[in-house]
Amino acid sequence: MIITKSEKQTFELGKKLAKKLRGGEVLALSGELGAGKTILVKGIAAGLGIKKIITSPTFVLMKVYQLRARTLKLKANKLVHIDCYRLTNAQAIIDIGAKEYFNRPDAITVIEWPEKIKEVLPRQKMNIKLSLRHNFNQREITLK
C-alpha cells in the first residue's frame, strides 16, 4: 500500500509505474469518483513520454495515444486509455474493439472502472485500487 498526499504525488507515482511497463500490460484502476484514477493515468502517460493533454474518455470510452517506443525501450507503441464509468455491460467495449488491445505486446492498456466489464477482462492484469482517505488530498493506493 502506498499513500499519496497530493495530486502531484499521485501523478509522480504514475510516472514511476510507467518506468516498469514494457508492453502487454493491462492495468485495472478501481476506486470511487475523485479517488485519483485519471491523475494516475496522466502520470503514467507522462512517464511514457506522451506530451498530449490526457483527459478521461468517459464519453468516447477509449483513447489511443502513440508512444515513442524506441526512445523508451518499449515493445509497446501505444497507450490505450479506457473508461467504463458509463457502461452497464461489457458489450460496448467489445463493439469498439477495445478488448483487442488487452495483453497485446504493442500496447499498454489502462482501464478505469474495470468492475463494469469484469467478464471480459483478461486474467493477466495488474489491479490497482485507489481510495480516498479521511484527508481528501490523501489517496491510499494498492497494487496487486
Report the helical percentage: 10-25%
Please summarize the sheet with the most strands: 7 strands, mixed
Nearest-integer average pLDDT: 92
Gap between N and C termini, in Å? Answer: 10 Å
**Secondary-structure arrangement, i.e. CATH architecture:** 3-Layer(aba) Sandwich
The count of β-strands is: 7
Cross-sheet strand order for the largest sheet: 1-7-6-2-5-4-3
The succession of helices and strands, N to C, reads: EHEHEHEHEEE
Structure class: alpha/beta
What would you report as the Rg, rounded to the nearest angstrom?
14 Å
Instruction: Identify the CATH homologous superfamily.
Output: P-loop containing nucleotide triphosphate hydrolases
- Assign the CATH class: Alpha Beta
Portion of residues in beta strands equals 25-35%
Helical stretch count? 4
Low-pLDDT runs of 5+ residues are none
Examine the coordinates and then state which fold CATH places here, giving the name of the CATH topology. Answer: Rossmann fold
What gross morphology would you assign? globular
Number of domains: 1
Any overview of this molecule?
The chain is α/β, with parallel strands linked by helices. It has helices at 7-18, 37-47, 69-72, 91-95, and strands at residues 2-4, 26-30, 62-66, 78-83, 107-112, 126-132, 139-143. Helix 1 crosses helix 2 (37-47). Helices cover 22% and strands 26% of the residues. The radius of gyration is 14 Å and the shape is globular. It has a seven-stranded mixed β-sheet, with helices on one face. It has four helices and seven strands, in the order E-H-E-H-E-H-E-H-E-E-E. The chain has a single domain, classed as P-loop containing nucleotide triphosphate hydrolases (Rossmann fold, 3-Layer(aba) Sandwich), CATH 3.40.50.
